Amino acid sequence: MSKLNLFNKFVFFINSIVATILLLSYLLPYVEPERSAFISVLSLTVPFLIIVNILFVIYWLLSVKKQLLLSLIVLLIGFNHIASLYRFSASKHVEDDANIAVMNYNVRLFNLFKWIPNPDVPFEISQFIKDKKPDIISMQEYRPDDGLALQEYYKFEVLSGNKIKNGQAIFSKFPIINKGSIEFPNTYNNAIFVDVVKGKDTIRIYNVHLQSLKIDASTDPLKNETSENLFKRVGNTFRLQQAQADLFLEHKAKSQYKVIICGDFNNTAYSYVYNKIKGDNLNDAFVEAGNGFGRTFNFKFFPVRIDFIMADDNFEINNFKTFEIGFSDHFPIMSKVKVK
């Protein structure tokens, strides 16, 4: 440190703070929001912290200073966190006639309130789905719309609300032999499921929509709200998400079938609810077969991945792709999986 000039001493001081916060954030998936909601909120900043630490490594590398070791070591310790943010390898792409193409998409009410200057969003989404040919489609913030043309699918939807009926839906090209809903108290969010038959296999598909953070993707969250109020609101949301995840897992534990989970968790891969739902026997399709940032939410400040497809150990994950199309504030994701 003695060989650093005054400016670089200040840079290293900031570097030390950011590296320490990132190191502590590695514990966040194991901290229950019910115990410390304030600390859990930090999970939203992990993508930003990773990117800033990478920039510090580059800065010290270009300056030929050993201080690069601080952020580099912290990043290496949390290599799995980096893998959840960015996949350096090429996308896995295994074509197999036995593949099941599973899509997840938060459709944001098919642009009901004209957030996007496009009057044909339901039709555009229909055309997109027809082009990609998924076998299973899981939709959040769904509402019945005459412009959505998916006649070749079986469908299960659960709707609520007074003026505008909306909720979750699952579309399947395979016959649905059972279906149901897991109700979350005091909210319109819930989880639904269907059991579908493909050949000799019965597969349970879950569509999970956890409590929303209610953050507008196009604006600065602090612009219209103080940081104190924002942390309090998000902390309360994380507590609700924890309770909702517990209800979902209680239901899932009773399933005797092979399981695929789709959904909008409204939280990142560094959160307690993601870690809890994923557990030890589910595989994140992006981590197994994706590449790049894999962002699923059109947040303008840094890449955010809050929509997921997971499959249990009965499946091989042969492909994953995010489609950055502008029909919602979320991007659709699709994975191709095969029963082992």
TrEMBL record:
UniProt GO molecular function: endonuclease activity; exonuclease activity; metal ion binding
Record's keyword annotation contains Acyltransferase: no
Domain of life where this protein originates: Bacteria
Span of the signal peptide: none
GO biological process: DNA repair
Domain called Endonuclease/exonuclease/phosphatase: residue spans: 104-330
Stretches that traverse the bilayer: 12-31, 37-61, 68-86
Cofactor: Mn(2+); Mg(2+)
InterPro entries: Endo/exonu/phosph_ase_sf (IPR036691), Endo/exonuclease/phosphatase (IPR005135), TDP2-like (IPR051547)
Family annotation (Pfam families): Exo_endo_phos
Keyword terms: DNA damage, DNA repair, Endonuclease, Exonuclease, Hydrolase, Magnesium, Membrane, Metal-binding, Nuclease, Transmembrane, Transmembrane helix
Protein name listed in UniProt: Endonuclease/exonuclease/phosphatase family metal-dependent hydrolase
Species this chain originates from: Gelidibacter sediminis
